[in-house]
Amino acid sequence: MLPISIIRRTSLLEIYTSMIKRPKLQDIAKQVGVTKMTVSRFFNDPNSVALKTRERISEVIEEMGFIPNRVPAIMSKSSSKCIGLVIPSFSNLVFAEVIDGVEETAVKYGYSVLLMHSGYDVHQEEQKIAELISYQVDGLILSEPEHTPLTMKRLLKAGIPIAEIMSLPKVPLGIACGIEHQQVATETTLALIESGRRHIAYFGARMDKRTYERQEGYLNAVKQAGLQSLVYDEIGRSNFTTGHLLLKRAMQHTPPDAIICTNDDVAMGVLMGCQELKLKVPDDLSIIGYNGLNVCEASTPKLCSIATPRRMMGQLAMEKIIAQLEAGMLQHDLTYLSVTLRAGGTATAAEQQKIKEHLDKLNLVMQQNLSEARLGVA
Amino acid sequence: MLPISIIRRTSLLEIYTSMIKRPKLQDIAKQVGVTKMTVSRFFNDPNSVALKTRERISEVIEEMGFIPNRVPAIMSKSSSKCIGLVIPSFSNLVFAEVIDGVEETAVKYGYSVLLMHSGYDVHQEEQKIAELISYQVDGLILSEPEHTPLTMKRLLKAGIPIAEIMSLPKVPLGIACGIEHQQVATETTLALIESGRRHIAYFGARMDKRTYERQEGYLNAVKQAGLQSLVYDEIGRSNFTTGHLLLKRAMQHTPPDAIICTNDDVAMGVLMGCQELKLKVPDDLSIIGYNGLNVCEASTPKLCSIATPRRMMGQLAMEKIIAQLEAGMLQHDLTYLSVTLRAGGTATAAEQQKIKEHLDKLNLVMQQNLSEARLGVA
DNA sequence: TATAATTATGTTACCGATATCAATTATCCG
DNA sequence: CGGATAATTGATATCGGTAACATAATTATA
């Protein structure tokens, strides 16, 4: 069906004739009867302008709806006060909170965020990073663990703080704030095994690289316990439909008694599928999600999920970037963030307890690593 | 639980000592043995540079991981080739496709997109729009129908094409590509009434302004039919949980036999709630979503929803902005986009048919308006 | 009231690209 | 081979702000 278009002239038309040249400080200055320097001061250091002048400038600005041009300022100050953020996708709600955390912190310190998405593709990422650097961002936050060789070279030569979030990259570029997805998956799987589950499946999706880290962790655990590995995945995005589909496929093959899902969407799809297939959750089958999105609250029973500190990751990455900017010094800085259990009835109470214990143990081990690392550096 | 931090020095450390001054065209030029003008040409009009020179420049750029600074270019060319896009929220998947449509079209014509979010708040929107204008965007796409008076003034004085999408604003700033949400809701409601439903409820959310447009349309229809209006809403975002909650509330009050939801998330929440409350869908209760997101596929039965052409809205807004930029002429331009029915078993086959008919009728009426408007202008 | 101290404003150079025009070099053809 | 033409490169001004210093206006103080 084609869009239906009505071109209609309205009362505002007289304003809309041809493109107007945007006013500049000079224009305001002339109107007020000062030089552009005074108007510049009005914006950057109002107290250095006489009250009377300030009022007159204010009036003219108000009247003209004037907004100063930040472009020459970026050149002059050789700092844009902008931080670039590249996420893989806007259709993945995981990143919504990351964005909020990043932006919240940026604003707190007087920075802005330029946001781009890479579509889970390293070449698109290359493009977007180049674009952000070409706008002279003062720092970069990246959320995918892999980059093209050219991107790596550019990033190392960029001379600005760079933070990688979500996962911990093997060769960090500078700052890294992430989760040990693999270890988390191992511990979760072990907890389910200890709780008596013997047919634990992993539902993934081939789009996201972090999925594979978790899958690796899952495989380690089942191998360690001498159990059969049951991995199911699907090309493309991981969503409700994927979960639904993978459940059906799994049931035809070897019916699992527990499913660890790569994320909450897949897990919700599984849960919905269970209602259709009349599977009792968590008795017949326990379902564990990943991320702890709000969607977990929606179902009955609520989805049990591994909650990731997404907002905090954004905040922390930003804090660290700004710290390095203010110090004028680039430094390597790795931060491992711990995950928590988002309680929900898709796992038994005993299982939830076991998972909690395992995650706590993992956190403890990491803290020990921390101490050792400190000694190593000292 | 606090994040666990490990600061570790790695093999890349030697590169990371202090902030490096970013290289400029001049630096490349010196290395190659030409003037910066030649390097500038290398990027903007490669064919005007001798093959041999081109190769040498290429090598140096490759080696230095050089990315040209676009900031002075924006000043010099007095065009940024950037279009600003402001959406209310990244946690609303409705906008993911809009973004894709906008960006896809932008890239096609050599433009970039600067993306910001306003958190459904006109004052935040004011900030973000000002920021985008301060970066000298060549055009703006806004997705909320209301703006502060200051924003209105600034937009009218900005001298760049501005497109408003999603809804059709009462006083359009320039370009508008939107949906007649109110009329669509009226027609949907009427279709359900004609199908025999007598207790039709509307589930909204108080965050989103478009919700109210739809609510208005719903109210018109029930009033027209002499039925009781059953509006339920909740402060805050509209999501699964909201739908769940509103269903319970509605059932305690006057159990509805049909629910029109402000969006698909609320509708999914309702559907999940039905499974808990043992309500038969669509026999006891039919559920209509809004937007036609992919989430509609996830449930059993699939969610019946009014699909909005989100990607097309983005594409169209961008096309029209670029057209005006190339023409160097600002013009009012309103486009009404039609909606379609996304089939799903949460409404009976007969109901789905009726809704389709009503929507088709609406599209016809709009086409007539189009003809009249053309005559009016001619 | 004169002079110093302070406040307010102005002047000039510069940030790093590109537009424009000028100069140089290479190529062609009779 | 010489001059014309085309291809390539260079020189200079400019975009619109801000930094840094200079000057003018005001106030404080002796």
Describe the structure.
The structure is a homodimer of 378-residue chains. Chain A has 378 residues and is of the alpha/beta class. Chain A has helices spanning 25-32, 36-44, 51-64, 71-77, 94-108, 122-134, 149-157, 181-194, 209-224, 240-253, 264-277, 310-327, 349-377, and strands at 4-6, 82-87, 112-117, 139-142, 162-167, 175-179, 200-203, 230-232, 258-261, 286-291, 304-307, 333-336, 340-342. In chain A, the strands form 2 sheets. Chain A has a 6-stranded parallel sheet with strand order 3-2-4-5-6-12, sandwiched between helices. In chain A, strands 8-7-9-10-11-13 form a 6-stranded mixed sheet, sandwiched between helices. In chain A, strand 9 (258-261), helix 11 (264-277) and strand 10 (286-291) form a beta-alpha-beta unit. In chain A, helix 5 runs parallel beside helix 12 and helix 8 (181-194) runs parallel beside helix 9 (209-224). The first copy, chain A, starts with a strand and ends with a helix. The model of chain A is unreliable at 9-16 (pLDDT under 50). Strand 12 of chain A pairs antiparallel with strand 1 (4-6) of chain B, so a sheet runs across the interface. Chain A binds a DNA duplex (30 and 30 nucleotides) through residues 24-26, 34-38, 40-41, 44, 48-50, 53, 68-78.
